[in-house]
Design a protein that fits this description.
Elements lengths: L3 E5 L9 H13 L5 E7 L11 E5 L5 H11 L3 H5 L3 H8 L5 E5 L4 H5 L9 E4 L4 H8 L1 H20 L3 E4 L2 H8 L6 E3 L18 E5 L5 H18 L6 E5 L15 E5 L4 H5 L4 E4 L9 H9 L3 E3 L1 H4 L2 H5 L7 H13 L1 H20 L2 H10 L2
Parallel strand pairs: 1-2, 1-4, 2-3, 4-5, 5-6, 6-7, 8-9, 8-11, 9-10, 11-12
Helix pairs in contact: 6-7, 9-14, 14-15
Length: 369
């Protein structure tokens, strides 16, 4: 059987973050039915890859003036042109797989410039919509650029044989624009060691890479909400875990709220907590924090943007208003038995899906001819 080659914007051997973690999972699920390798953009292309199935291609630095010039000349978004890398096109040209799989719409650009365009099938996993993030978090420039990103996302989706999205609403979006083979990729993580919620202290956790603007936005919300959540609850604490935003200027946090940054032992941190908080306002794509929590049976308090289509899948209530969010946090802090019961329910739902191989089937259906 010929190989399926994934095209990745990050290096799966060294990079971290929700999108690349899910890319690794999707490749593993694909390996259940086909041989898989990958070409990735990497800051470590000068070093030998520790995984022989992963070819590293140099990821060039952002050259904004040149990208803006190209954007105006070619009428494409800066986001998509950022990943139209000549070295990536050359690497694609050198391969002869039966199928290419692009993770993110913008990774299609190099494929479209290669000899394989119109010759070798392409599948696309949209992962998330960059247009949503740009419109919500990058000011006037982001609102101007967002429609151009949308146009590029639709154009690249139309070039694919089949498109997968992590959000069910995106399926309707793409089908409404002529992408007939659009799939909801409702994958979940394999069961992890179950969190001991019944033995937890009065500790909640926020988990997220804050170099991603929506996570930073959620972190800043929690700074304002935490005093109300913790009011009158002895020893209530909130741990903030994940890489800090590059330009964030630390400021005093409310009592009981601690920013620990990157956690060397994430399992130990999560196993000490009562619930995971996700007050995300700008959503899109898969919600890795939710999948991570479900895989270990850790209750989640989240907004619709944080939970996405998986809220219904897991049977988790949405808490969009400040009042609802604060009330649900306080419920879990004040009633450990309620948190433990919710964690047990969540763990079983996730484990049952994995035993029934639902994620494996979803990936196989998407990649099938």
């Amino acid at each position: 059987m010929s190989t399926t080659t994934f095209l990745l914007a990050k290096d799966p051997t060294v990079d971290h973050g929700g999108d690349i973690a899910l890319s690794r999972l999707v490749m593993e699920l694909a390996r259940a039915s086909r041989p898989v390798d990958a070409i990735c953009l990497s800051q470590r292309a000068h070093e030998p890859s520790p995984n022989r199935s992963v070819l590293r291609v140099p990821k060039p630095p952002v050259a904004l003036p040149w990208l803006i010039f190209r954007s105006l000349r070619e009428r494409k978004s800066v986001v998509h042109l950022r990943y139209d890398v000549s070295a990536l096109r050359d690497a694609i040209d050198e391969r002869e797989p039966e199928l290419f799989v692009a993770e993110h719409n913008y990774m299609v650009e190099a494929f479209l410039g290669s000899r394989h365009r119109g010759r070798t099938p392409l599948a696309l996993n949209t992962v998330n919509s960059e247009s949503i993030v740009w419109r919500s978090t990058r000011g006037l420039g982001g609102r101007i650029e967002a429609p151009r990103i949308v146009a590029d996302e639709v154009r690249t989706a139309l070039a694919a044989r089949a498109v997968a999205t992590y959000d069910r609403d995106e399926v309707d979006f793409y089908r409404g624009r002529g992408v007939n083979r659009a799939h909801w990729l409702d994958i979940t993580l394999p069961p992890a060691q179950q969190a001991p919620v019944a033995d937890s202290g009065s500790t909640l956790v926020f988990l997220g890479d804050r170099t991603w603007p929506p996570n930073q936005e959620a972190f800043e919300l929690l700074i304002g909400w935490w005093p109300e959540i913790a009011r009158g609850i002895p020893n209530a604490s909130l741990l903030v875990v994940g890489k800090r935003a590059d330009r964030w200027k630390p400021r005093p946090l409310p009592d009981g709220m601690t920013d620990i940054g990157f956690a060397d032992d994430l399992d130990a941190v999560l196993n000490s907590c009562r619930a995971l908080l996700a007050p995300v306002l700008t959503g899109g794509g898969v919600r890795v924090k939710l999948l991570e929590a479900a895989s270990r049976g850790l209750p989640v308090v989240g907004t619709a943007a944080a939970l996405g289509s998986h809220a219904e899948l897991f049977g988790i209530g949405v808490n969009d208003s400040r009042e609802e969010f604060v009330a649900q946090c306080r419920r879990f802090l004040l009633d450990r038995s309620a948190a433990a019961a919710e964690g047990e329910r969540l763990y079983r739902v996730n484990a049952d899906r994995w035993v029934q191989q639902v994620p494996h089937k979803r990936v196989a259906e998407w990649l099938a001819p």
